[in-house]
Queue: 2 jobs
Job 1
Amino acid sequence: MQFDAEQLAEYVIAFGDELKTDSRRVAKHFGKRHDNVLQTIDRMRREMPAEDHRLSFQEMVIPTLVGSGASRDSRVVSMTKDGFMLLAMSFTGKKAMLTKIAFVRAFNQLAASARHIGASLWDQRRDLEEENYINLQFAKYGSELMLNRKLVWLPYYRPRKQHLDNTMQLSLFTLLDTQQQELSHAE
């Protein structure tokens, strides 16, 4: 079973660099009441080591619309794939098994998509750095080339680099930024 983006969001969502689902989604797809799913998570908290529970489940309070535009705060628990697997093990029956399979496939498909996108961004970032290095080497041969670098290349390079860095959100680029600033000061 392959999901499109809208179907994936019904099961799994990305929080930063983590893939998660939440107690509302679980209740909806397993055909259970949300308060019963929360009770099961609370029981699990008592039965499992605190550190494992903390890593797998995170409490949230979100506004929920009720009636004529009014809202109230509702407790929702977000969970990692591991948390979902631990919770889903308590659900039995044929429908529960099919729902577990759908959730696992959604997690796996979204993770595979993220890896593919990350690899593509990494390739773009590497190519951009290679272009920058070559441009810098040429700029060292004369003042006209250095001026061209400052007026043409760097205004093109910096926003592209920033966009890729923001998209990839990897701490590795903190080191590369420091090195780039050192190069800019040397220019």
Job 2
Amino acid sequence: MICVPFYLNTLEEYYTGELNLPCIHGVSEGTVIACIAMHTSGFLGIEFWNSQFSIFGITTQINHGMTTLCFLSGIGFGFGSLFNILREFKEKNDEVIKNTQMFFYLVVSMLLVIFYSDSEFVRNYPKLIIVLFGFAFAKLVSHLQLAHIADAKFNQYRKSLIISFFFLSVFSIKTSFNKIISIDIDFLIPVFVGMHAICWAHFAYFVSEELCHILGIYRFSVRRRSIKN
């Protein structure tokens, strides 16, 4: 719900140099919806979301309906930005499509793990899956933001992303077809969570270090640092 519009909106900003969001967009309206959902849970209890309702003859749970609506809205807001780029930069359409490959690879890998793996983490500890893909997405979109700020070429291909999501995807598919595999996916998931956390921390440290040198300050203080440092 969040990753699709966030990444594609940022990609539009990378190409156009400015962030022009429509009157109704995923950032502001998405925040309002999230606040309403949290207040609803607080006042009515989480059982409210398990209640059923009918629309157009289809009966479903409120949480299923809201999740579907939010996913479709996020996809709509995100692809709106992608279409804007393709329309304004027709000469760069091939490059634009290529710069979405790693992101959609990440999304497909996540869906394969959720729907096709028999992971205990997916069933009992889904927040760990969110953390795993959250760190990966944060690193990918941060490199895109850094490329935009530094006016540099965006390099989407990261070894940590390619390696981890290749193995997660392959082992998820093989498990679903009851093939014999040598590595348990429940072993890979925490390993890759740790790896992506370290990669993100490494990225954040060196970016902040570079900014501190440029600004002539210390990391946790605006006190001027000596030229020798």
